[in-house]
Amino acid sequence: MRSQRGQAWAYLMLGVALVGAMGFGAYQTRLKNQYLRDAENKYMAAFHKLKWTSENIEERTAKLMATNDPRLQESLLADLRVFSAQAVEHMSTLPFTTMNTPRIANFLNTLRDQSDEKHHKLNTGQALDEADWAQLMELRKQAVFFEEELSNLLGLIGNNMIRWQPTVQATSPAQTGQAATPITKSVLALEQSIPVPPGEENALAPEKAHLPRPQTDLGSRVDAAAAAEAIKRFIDMPLKGEPVQTGVYDPEDKLQGLSLYYFDATKQNGLPMNFGVSVHGGHVIYMVDGRLVAEKKLKPDELIQKAMQMLARWGFPNVAHVSAAENDGTLVMEFAPVVDGVAIHTDMIRVSLAMDNGELVGYDARSYWVNHHDRQLPAPRLSADEAAAHTSPRLTVTAEPRLALIADRRGQERLVWEVPGRVEDQQFRVFVDAQDGTEVDLIRQAGDPAPPQ
User: Fold this and answer.
1) What is the rounded distance in angstroms from the CA atom of residue 263 to the CA atom of residue 289?
2) End-to-end CA distance of the chain
3) Of the N and C termini of the chain, which has fewer Cβ atoms inside 10 Å?
4) C-alpha to C-alpha distance for 74 and 70, rounded to whole angstroms
5) According to the 3-state scheme, what is the secondary structure of 233-294?
6) Using one digit for the tens of pLDDT, what is the confidence trace for 395-453?
7) Burial class (CB in 10 A: 0-12, 13-18, 19+), 98
8) pTM confidence score
9) Would strands 402-407 and 342-344 be described as parallel, antiparallel, or unpaired?
């Protein structure tokens, strides 16, 4: 009888375990399907925004070719500067970061830079010359092609002939789908066919792309084994196996850029991470972990403090918190190293932590390692109160201004007072030149309004 009871209990326990496993499996399936639906909706919204900005770019470039009024030209170039910057942002939201698209990136970045440059030229009383118009004509050709190809792709998606879900699966951390999807193939076809200005064909070849040269010596060369050890010290968590080197960028410094080792690593739970480690000095430059965060348990203030503790452990003990924004269950924070009381925004470091358990899911210090160098910072001519007095009378200053070093629209570093303030219920940061009181930049804390969906 005892033997039979023991067997019965064993079967009962086995049945409970099976039911539990089936329930957990069903929960995991629901979670996965919810993730796919959410990601598909997110990408669809971002693609509609990209399409909307491309239509505006095409329209503004067309009008620019037709007008001879400098005031209208200046207004159209100002619009192009905004829409091209928004297009870059929408492209970064879409799952194309693993695809090599230098021609698309070059088109959008060149359009943004050139519209800003030519707007400044008109704003200072100079007329656009033949070389300016020739360059704008080439950008116009690219804008027309870009908008037409996005229209074709949107038509296929809108008519449910192709969907985002396979692309979501192919670009997720687990990579559960085929690497090539109808959408990724369409984007690569756009990349390969977009018109390139004469003389730039070879310059835009993938093998010609390079990272900027650091402005200071990062240290002596390290081998891949030392770079792998740097990853283990940086992540401060047990890994499943050793970091695996997947590539190296410019190991002999022939391109005079930021030389990197590329690594994949795996957590104990099986989720992958990607790293870039500098060939010189063995510094971890970036880290990406795209795991799904389903819950928000921790408050932003808690995560900001934890991120600052991590930065101190990584060798950045004195930083100023600049901004924080929630993004799909993670808190993306920006920190500026502080030197002699000045927050160096051009050396910005970005840290992303999961809002469920505070785990590190993203790190990007490329701006720091490229731009950092010993600077001779000028003494401010204006006091904090004098700088605040230069802001709008409608702005209520909400905290003590602080000194910062930022880059203006032409990439020139400027010593400014960062003045936090409020207009009605909107929060702003106004950057006032510490020498002459001019407003260099203005940032709304809530971000720019999204275009209609």
Assistant:
1) 12
2) 70
3) N
4) 6
5) HHHCCCECCCCEEEEEECCCCCCCCCCEEEEEEEECCCCEEEEEEECECCCEEEEECCCCCC
6) 999 999 999 999 887 778 999 999 999 988 888 899 999 999 999 888 887 544 444 44
7) exposed
8) 0.64
9) parallel
